[in-house]
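W.,

You were right to be curious about this one. When I first looked at the sequence I had no strong expectations either way, so I just let the prediction run and decided to look at it fresh. Below is the sequence, 194 residues in total, followed by the output.
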Amino acid sequence: MAEWLDSVLPKDCPRSEGLAIARLAKANQIGRGGLTLTSPAFEAGGVLDPCFTADEEDAVAPPLEWTAPPPGTQELVILVEDASASPPTLHWAVWGLGGQRGKLLEGEVPPRVGKNDRGNSEWLLPQLETGAEAHTYVFQIFALDLPLTLLPGATKDDLLASMEGQVTAAAVLAAKYQSLPEEEIDWDDEDAID
């Protein structure tokens, strides 16, 4: 595992060698040109709200915002992986984002989405057994010097292979999630079991 990731990921984050950031980026590319990734819905290292997880019925993908990437960036890619799973589980693969400052709104459908590790082209809701230890989800953004030619629905392997050698800058944002106890889940009354 790249030792430089220790300075990028939260101290209690599992150091999974399978994370895309470890495969595709180098230490000097993290934050290059001032590139950062944030969310108005959670702090770095904070907790994912249940409305972004399987704990809520109408859950959606969280909102994300990023600063301008380095000049010459042709495209941005966002990957979200569960670093606590072995190997890491891909929850979201988004590309086709312009090489400029931008954002994805809560629940917004991105321009191009690839297959997550369950084979669906959508935000894979974090879901853990009640009482399971918290998992760390790593949101990663990559600036590429060439646009990708992948069609929507591409697999993780295809996406990572097409990004090899094209990354000029990257940034990460981590958040935790732990399943709520059953009595704390906010289900609608009509969905309650009698």
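Here's what jumped out at me. The beta strands are 37-38, 64-66, 75-82, 89-97, 102-104, 112-113, 135-144, 167-177. And, maybe more interesting for your project: The mean pLDDT is 90.

Coffee later to discuss?

I.
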